[in-house]
Amino acid sequence: MNKKFSTLVAGLAMISAVASAQITKTDGYTMLKSSSSDYLAVYGAKSDSVVVKTFSNLATAPKASIDSAMWKVTEAGVDATGNKLYNFTNKKTGAVLSFAAKKDAKPNLAAGVDKWSVTTDGKISAYYSANGSLGLVVSGGKLSLGIASAATAFTSEVNSALKARTLAASDLGDGFTVFSLNFGEAYQENIFEGKELVATQLTGADADYVQLQEVGADKIGEKDAYFGLDTTKYTIAGQKDVFGYKFAKDSTWLDNGYHTVLNGDFQKFKFIQDLSNDKVAVYVKNAPVYNTTTKKFEAALTGTAADVQVVYAQVTNSKVLTVSKLSGTPSTIEQGVAPSVKLGKGTPATLPTGDGVYFIKVKSGDEFKYVYATASGLELKKDAPNAYNPAGQFYVVAKGGKYQFVERNFNQGLTTAAAQIYKVTGKDAYRVDAVNSAASASLAAGTEFYFEYQKDIKAGGKEYNYMATKYLDKVAVDNFAYTLNLISGTEGVDDLYTIVDGVLKVKKTTAEDAAKFKVEVIKDKTGKVWTSNADEHKAGVGAIALGDTLATATYKLYKQYTKEYVVAKDNEFKLAKEDNTATPAVAGSEFTFKTAKGNGYLLSTGDKIVVLDVNTGKLISAAASAVNNNYFDLVVEPSPDYATLNAPSHMLVKSAEADGKALSMNPKSLFAEVKLAGQEEYIDSLFGLWIDTACVKDVTRPTYYITTGNGLDSAAIADGYRYFLVNPQDSVYSAVKGDDDKYTSKTNEGSAYWNATEGLVKAAFVKAIVYGEDSLAIVREKATAVDTLKTMSVNPAAMAFVTTANNTLKIENKTTKEIANEDDATKTDREDVTSYLKVINNVLVWTDNRDEAHEFVAEATTLHPTSNDNVEEGASAISVVANAGTVTIQGAAGKSVVISNILGKVVAETVLSSDNATIAVPAGIVAVAVEGEAAVKVVVK
Fold it and tell me: In this protein, which residues make up the domain named DUF6383 (predicted)?
């Protein structure tokens, strides 16, 4: 018998618990331990980072973690003084210890210094130049690179726990339970050869053992098939006890009277590895033996005896695998020779449909049930999930051959960690490692799962990212107002709208009388509306750990134009301006419209829901568990209609109040005002405005430039310059950077564009020129890049004309203003601003309340800047002569005459008593309309 190969355990009696030595070259791997008991290692999460680790117990530490702290030391020549240099190669990653050759190098692997000298006291260092050196320095549990003289002392150590490490199932395949088992030579009837095996970790008293099955052939009929020892054996000269028994793949025998011995322990394998050289010994918990007296098979090992070792034996011209008993102290193989065992990584099973959303079902009795999550665990239900509700939808992602399964409704995992899956032979089912059995008594190791891929549920589409909640996209948020409707559970009861009567109430009324709300999207700190780990508003929604984009669409509601937010107060809801400086601060409530029955939504806020108090008509908050049929919906208020003007053309933009006033530019201040013809410096030609089309991005909302050439010389006009009506928000509002490098949103109250009395921005005209299709350049003494406007949707000079029920127009502008970023004060942001022209004491300002907007009418005019010396009369027998402050009408005795100014205001009306009648009128261009004749325009001085 050859006893050259003894069990790995035999060596334990001949070494101390810890063998520490000076660092030198090794045949295998060693650990490099600092004087502060830290071990040099690569960082598991980032394998190019070199760190130091501590191990409280090497015997129980994960093998992968230990491997990352083991190094192969090889000689790499000598330095200039003849001292040996060494390379250090990491066992886990195969990377050579190498850092950048520079003074401030970080302990991250990089090309550069990779040959190291080791002093007699274990200091590891290297020189990258005549005066430049790097030394490994350990301080406070951290590794850094200092100069050679500051290096920390290390020793080479191989702990006894590393010499005989019992491998777990996942260690066999380098992190996977799928692996290959190679015994180093060709063996007759080697049932392990060329097969992928899957190991199942046993527990309890068998915690050191695994069961082995063949991937893709793990069944015999309906029974699980395992590798193990059989009761058949080879005939070998001199064999005794268990020596010679063969390996076979069989089911586990039951105590049913057909077998004289049960084979369960014959199918339990133990793998022990010397981590310093990766040599492996394989054991089986027990083996059969034939009792020649009883003529029956029985277990060979009894009492405290444990394990037989896998060996090989020579049979004629072949070698075969069998087992041998162990004997002696230290224990050695009785017969046969230990083979050279190599473990290889296998190929894990994969889901053919890849990552995505799945429904998961299991066989429960005679029926299938689906896996759902709860707030604290998992449960099974008969009803299948659906595509528009995240309950029962599992987000499945594979990484590095392992899968994670997280339910999208409660962020609950099917497994306790990333897990392997195993295809069940003959079925479309899989077994899964690390099943979260603590979350459900119905699920455990060995459960067969069926994964139903939901190809139509795509991450990234709004209908799936915001499933189970009402979602409004940017267009819906920016452009529409809404009524909040209560959907009645009573047939025939409709038109239940929310109104504001001190507090929010529900009333049967019309949409015109209902409260109109705008919505504000609640975003996370990154500016996204979907969930993330940093999202304080929607934590716990979606498969967060897997980067799921599912979100709870959450909004604040505020009254259109006034921007008064819906705020919860004593279980009721009222309107109030947000105020962060108040005590307590006033903030709009956050609402979510959750999919419910009755074609509506449950309206939730925090952990409450909004319901109708039938006694008072008020909307109140109630516990989310309350049983109710109060379903709500946001209904779009009919969007405003926008006028399409006959542009480009000269037009009068007159006040609709029949006061004779019109929009014009103050020739001195350049502010926009409404004035009467002849009032102060307002000559007639100031009222004739040139209306031209701005670049139209939205055909339903055409925009126009309102301009005038007054005050410009003929050369400037010829070059294309004009004065443009603008909304100068950016000249008033800005984000100001403080000494702390943080921005604060400020109002420049010293700006000429600021109306301090009203707290509103004034409308003004600025000199500018249009170039290209959609750009506008503003002319200032010191022009900046900001003065070139290219985004017509937020152009402060692009005006839209909103139509009203009175057949009048309101002038609307959409632009932006600079503010401090709400989530990061070191950054600025842009806030959308929609404004309307409002008149205050003849001065035009911008308001966000459309109800306050001034109403205008626009009509074509022949008025535009002219010499004003003469105006031709209409061809008629009647003569109209303009004088200083009067007009003389000849040849119209007995006829009525109406004289009006350019804005249509009647300044004189009479019946002429003679053929040479003189009538006093204000200076300016007037229209003289004699009965039966076309109106004649003249200039009165």
Answer: 865-940
